[in-house]
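Hi X.,

You mentioned you wanted examples for the new student's onboarding notes, showing what a folding record looks like when two proteins sit in one file. Here is a clean example. The first protein comes first, with its sequence line followed by its structure tokens.
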Amino acid sequence: MFQPGRLLLVGLVVASCSTPSGGGGPSGAGGSGGRSDASASGGGGGTAPGTGGSAGTAPDSSAGGDTGPSPEVTPDQGGGVDQGGGNPDAVTDANAPDGGGDAGAAMCPAGALLCDDFEKYAVGGNLSPTWTTDLIGGMVRVDTTRPFQGKQAVHITANTNVTNMLQIVAQGAPLFPLPGNMFYGRMMLWLSQLPPDHTNFVQASGFLPASTQVAKYAWGTKYGKLMAGYTIRNREADPPFVDCGNKPAMTGYPEKQWLCIEWQFDGTKDEMHHWLNGQPQTEVDVVKTGGCSEGGAAPANGRWQAPVFDKLMLGFYAHPFATAIDVWIDDVVVATRPIGCPKAP
């Protein structure tokens, strides 16, 4: 997995295949060529709470660690997704509105730890207090150009020929620490196209247990195909000394349509699981180890040991590429049970 070791405000591009993560103080959305905070942050972690927030409901004390797959969904002809199937353990968006207006609390399932449909933010404004923003190589803002439902979504524009680290970041309370150090996530994702090299869309990080080393789990793509990634750093801003990507899958993310991206990061079992439009992507799942067929040095014991998660990063990170890329994110949910996909508006 690629990460540029130390990303300073000067936006240095390095050859590593992993990224330091964002976070820090609140920032304005948009802008380019710099970070939204003053630190060159690594994979996350730390005990200082960030500015995370929640538009959702209080955690469901009955929610457990059910690792069953999400309900099956099928893309509609317009590129959306439709709720189908019947996993009785899934937290679903069956009551989501049929498009238009503010999705509001309706898109937030019972038992969720965090929900955001991005309707509450000013267009072009910042995303505080729920999120901070990484801004290297492009722009991150809320706008009305392509919402999945409702009126607004997060819009990311990546620049050409530079490293892009464009993410929304939730760190610390109230989202973290997680019950049992395990969580499921869901976001709707629209890509104008995939870059040719390695890209991260979902990352979560924190300190390794009883350690000051920072580890990160990540989901992304390489050569247009799905790939899990894992890094360890001595400190957040240091280059990774473990930098692994498992072998890319046969499946990639379809372009120019809304996708339902779901994941599970289980810190108690050292496992990573991924679903695309409700379908489990078992080819790239990680159970204890994902190997190190793509990337740099492997962990000494081969195990992808999970951190105590303290930071969630959603967005777009990639090495330089030749074509401008736009990404939209909408309807983000974090929960302790499988979430499922929303109905197409």
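Then the second protein repeats the pattern, sequence line and then tokens:
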Amino acid sequence: MYYEAVSVKYIRDYLLEVAFIDGTKGIADFADYAKRGGIFSDLRDIEFFKKVFINPDFGVLTWPGDIDIAPETVYTKVTGNPLKQVV
């Protein structure tokens, strides 16, 4: 998958450095996810947020309890570019 994440590193606060299978790498702020509530409520706890890892089967950012963010969404946050539309 083009947007598959291959590594993630906690920087500080809600900043994560993410690298993708295509060589793209960058830092994105995920504070907006901590504010969403619902399934993302646990991310408000910064110690929990730091437990982020890559699910090796799907290349997605994942937290304990099967909380994850789709790789294409993360790619957009990291690059600041919208995804290309496939028709």
